[in-house]
């Protein structure tokens, strides 16, 4: 498809959409689907048909509308007389039985009982770049993506920009990897572009999202799969690759289904494959399904897994930029990083660099979960204070309970207590607080959480997800878990705490990959801010939050 | 060794040494009689950097690097035996002793065991972490050899020698984390393995008494590893 055909398709799709006076959008991402949004969609379709409104009212599935805790979410749009923004109403906690009322309301007043206000900080404080199409387009139709200027950026880059200019734009944007460590994306692209690959280079999209409580990447893949494909194609053009892999975990069947469909549609329209848009650039994408091992999110383990080997990390260097999949130079970026590429090339690097803080540019998507009113997906500019995320966007802690900590960064991250709530969320600030940006999981904990118990939970995760290759991580995580359990049972002594810290130190400094190096982090950060809770378990044999079961007379008797 | 390989100089423990650019820190250290402990690395097999005993400090690098898997660089300043590294190595050894059931006094490899020798040499006198004492089944189904996973430290030398040298790939690792263990074929008894050629290379590269010959009593199992560098040399000569 060349640029003219693309704009023709876009215009045709927009015209087709304008035929409908009303549109009913039903969220069909995993969270709402799990509460039967597919049944709501078919109930709405039946109702529209029954009323004979097929010509004027369109019912369609769209991606995630972010406020997952109020799901299933449905929105209605009505074309205004003066062609301005269509009047839109968002409905929450919809059931299939509500379909008649919703269809009826199109002509008159919104259904008050179901209406979800959208002028709240949850929606107002968000800045959507990654999620700009999420909840607005049908993820299963390429035409809708093209109608919102999809693939136009790719064709523009292919025909008017050199690969070096694409990389320069990404470098100028200051984008940093959204997978966790925050490595400069422009720098990574430059190294792969300069690597001497002979004939082949690869681009890999890391969609092996595995942090407990994280679902950002899944939502992006389910809501806007073409965005990732276009971002990958731009990356491939920039670094000189012709083949790509998306490594997605098999636990995301919906994301896999939509990616498969998206790849097929893009290939059929000549937007992926050989000689894209009549240029010399060719790019094909294959899916690789992971079996759900957390460690396969580590880039060298991911590459081993793609090659069909046991998913274990190997020492770096050589880095994948030099020797990656099949020994070829390989660019690996996370889903969210690829999702940022299209807007950066479209709007320019300087535009992106204008959002966020001095060192952390753009926005970050977080999966807000735990003891908080509004759970769901949020996208905020880098540097947004934690307090704003918790109390304004998140709506605070339910049940009048007190906030205790926010956990970021998954199992390699840490817990940030109330006294640091005014810190901005960016890569450096989080590291200073003993936590980590990670991929974007954000778990809010209230006073009913025991921090030793939280550390034990994450350590159990690290222990069972350790690949077992290097000794410190394989054995150390098991010892750390056992020692933490001893503390939560009220059987530990201060000597055990010292031993725990020593094991933590060894695991952190001698492990082979990031999973091992980061494994002690939950212990370090909870000890830093909640040492008194550890001491209460050890010395007073009490769990202040009342979570841990400490039995009387449990102390070990040393004969 | 390709003719275009360049020579570089670096210092290891203050000693200036010369090396080919394709050599690892461990190779160069050993050439110069500088001791770097290791359990997974063995000359002749691909290094994997798994045991973490060969970690060294390199000036200007804030991570500790595995000497077996790190290429030398011009002007590198390597410290192989700082106080910090020595402490870490002892704790890693303690972890290995706590993970398996290493009871030297009844082991066929007592006195010839690389784990035991290193523990003595590095001054590991106690195991402070609790012993895990997991039950592991011994596989005595092979007609000539026995695999005792209680003494296995998962160095994967057997896996690599079987794959890279013998070409049989009988051994591999199954499970994850603390539940990892070595298996023959698809976790069948060793004696039933179709791929095993009974060459015995795995037994001889095994650093502990995990793989040993039948009929050996306590302390009688000494391993012969000379074949490995020889085989590697013969292969390189052929190229």
Tell me the name of the CATH homologous superfamily of the largest domain in chain A. Answer: NADH-ubiquinone oxidoreductase 51kDa subunit
Q: Average pLDDT across residues of chain A?
A: 92
Largest sheet of chain A: 5 strands, mixed
CATH topology of the largest domain in chain A: Rossmann fold
- The tally of domains of chain B stands at 2
* Residue runs with pLDDT of under 50 for 5 or more positions of chain B: none
Q: Give the C-level CATH assignment of the largest domain in chain B.
A: Alpha Beta
H/E element sequence of chain B? EEHEEEHHEHEEHEH
| Low-confidence sequence ranges of chain A | none
Biggest sheet strand line-up of chain B: 2-1-5-3-4
Percent helix of chain B, as a range, is: 10-25%
C-alpha Rg of chain A, in Å?
25 Å
User: Mean pLDDT of chain B, rounded to whole units?
Assistant: 94
Query: What's the architecture of the largest domain in chain A in CATH terms?
Result: 3-Layer(aba) Sandwich
Biggest sheet record of chain B: 5 strands, mixed
Q: Regarding quaternary structure, how should these chains be classified?
A: heterodimer
CA distance, first residue to last residue of chain B? 10 Å
Based on CA atoms alone, the radius of gyration of chain B comes out at 19 Å
Q: Can you name the CATH architecture of the largest domain in chain B?
A: 2-Layer Sandwich
């Amino acid at each position: 498809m060349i640029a003219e055909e693309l704009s023709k398709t876009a215009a045709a799709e927009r015209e087709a959409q304008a035929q409908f006076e009303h549109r009913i959008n039903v969220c069909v991402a995993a969270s709402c689907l799990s509460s039967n949004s597919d049944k709501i969609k078919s109930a709405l379709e039946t109702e529209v048909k029954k009323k004979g409104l097929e010509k004027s009212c369109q019912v369609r599935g769209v991606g995630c509308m972010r406020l997952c805790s109020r799901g299933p979410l449905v929105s209605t749009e009505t074309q205004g007389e003066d062609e301005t923004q269509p009047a839109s109403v968002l409905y929450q906690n919809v059931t299939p039985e509500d379909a008649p009322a919703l269809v009826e309301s199109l002509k008159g007043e919104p259904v008050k009982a179901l209406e979800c206000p959208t002028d709240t900080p949850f929606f107002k404080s968000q800045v959507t770049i990654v999620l700009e199409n999420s909840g607005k387009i049908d993820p299963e139709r390429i035409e809708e993506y093209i109608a919102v200027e999809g693939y136009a950026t790719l064709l523009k880059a292919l025909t008017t920009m050199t690969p070096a200019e694409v990389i320069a734009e990404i470098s100028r944007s200051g984008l940093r990897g959204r997978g966790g460590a925050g490595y400069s994306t422009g720098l990574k692209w430059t190294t792969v572009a300069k690597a001497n690959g002979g004939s082949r280079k690869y681009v890999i999209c890391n969609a092996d999202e595995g942090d407990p409580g994280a679902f950002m990447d899944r939502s992006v893949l389910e809501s806007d799969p073409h965005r990732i494909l276009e971002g990958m194609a731009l990356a491939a053009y920039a670094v000189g690759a012709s083949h790509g892999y998306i490594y997605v975990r098999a636990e995301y069947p919906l994301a896999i289904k939509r990616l498969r469909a998206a790849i097929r549609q893009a290939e059929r329209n000549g937007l992926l494959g050989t000689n894209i848009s009549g240029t010399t650039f060719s790019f094909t994408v294959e899916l690789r399904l992971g079996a759900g091992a957390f460690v396969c999110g580590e880039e060298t383990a991911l590459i081993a897994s793609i090659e069909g080997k046991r998913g274990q990390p190997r020492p770096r260097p050589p880095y994948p930029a030099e020797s990656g999949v099949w020994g070829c130079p390989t660019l690996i970026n996370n889903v969210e990083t690829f999702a940022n590429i299209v807007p950066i090339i479209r709007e320019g690097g300087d535009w992106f660099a204008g959002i966020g803080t001095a060192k952390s540019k753009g926005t970050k998507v977080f999966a807000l979960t735990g003891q908080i009113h509004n759970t769901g997906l949020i996208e905020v500019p880098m540097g947004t204070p934690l307090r704003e995320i918790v109390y304004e966007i998140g709506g605070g802690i339910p049940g009048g309970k007190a906030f205790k900590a926010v956990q970021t960064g998954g199992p390699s991250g840490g817990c940030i207590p109330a006294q640091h709530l005014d810190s901005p969320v960016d890569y450096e600030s989080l590291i200073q607080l003993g936590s980590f940006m990670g991929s974007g999981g954000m778990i809010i904990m209230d006073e009913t959480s025991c921090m030793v118990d939280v550390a034990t939970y994450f350590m159990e995760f690290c222990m069972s997800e350790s690949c077992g290759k290097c000794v410190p991580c394989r054995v150390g995580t098991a010892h750390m878990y056992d020692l933490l359990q001893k503390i939560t049972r009220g059987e530990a002594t201060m000597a055990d705490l010292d031993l725990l810290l020593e094991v933590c130190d060894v695991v952190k400094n001698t492990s082979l990959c990031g999973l091992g190096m980061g494994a002690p982090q939950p212990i370090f950060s909870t000890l830093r801010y909640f040492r008194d809770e550890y001491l209460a378990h050890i010395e007073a044999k009490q769990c202040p939050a009342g979570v841990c079961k400490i039995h009387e007379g449990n102390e070990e008797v040393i004969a | 060794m390709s003719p275009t390989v360049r020579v570089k100089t670096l210092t290891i423990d203050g000693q200036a040494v010369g090396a080919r650019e394709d050599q690892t820190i461990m190779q160069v250290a050993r050439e110069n009689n500088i001791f770097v402990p290791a359990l997974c690395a063995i000359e002749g097999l691909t290094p994997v950097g798994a045991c973490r005993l060969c970690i060294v400090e390199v000036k200007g690098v804030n991570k500790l690097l595995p000497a077996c898997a790190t290429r030398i660089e011009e002007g590198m300043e390597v410290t192989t035996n700082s106080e910090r590294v020595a402490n870490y190595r002892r704790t890693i050894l303690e972890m290995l002793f706590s993970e398996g059931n290493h009871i030297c006094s009844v082991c066929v490899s007592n006195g010839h065991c690389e784990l035991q020798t290193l523990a003595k040499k590095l001054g590991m006198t106690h195991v402070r972490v609790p012993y895990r004492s997991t039950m592991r089944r011994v596989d005595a189904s092979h007609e000539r050899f026995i695999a005792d996973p209680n003494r296995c430290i998962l160095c994967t030398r057997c896996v690599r020698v079987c794959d890279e040298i013998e070409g049989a790939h009988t051994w591999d690792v199954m499970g994850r984390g603390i539940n990892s263990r070595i298996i023959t074929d698809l976790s069948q008894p060793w004696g039933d393995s179709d791929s095993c050629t009974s060459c015995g290379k795995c037994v001889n590269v095994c650093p502990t008494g995990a793989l040993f010959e039948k009929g050996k009593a306590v302390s009688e199992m000494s391993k012969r590893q000379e074949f490995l560098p020889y085989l590697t040399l013969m292969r390189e000569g052929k190229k």
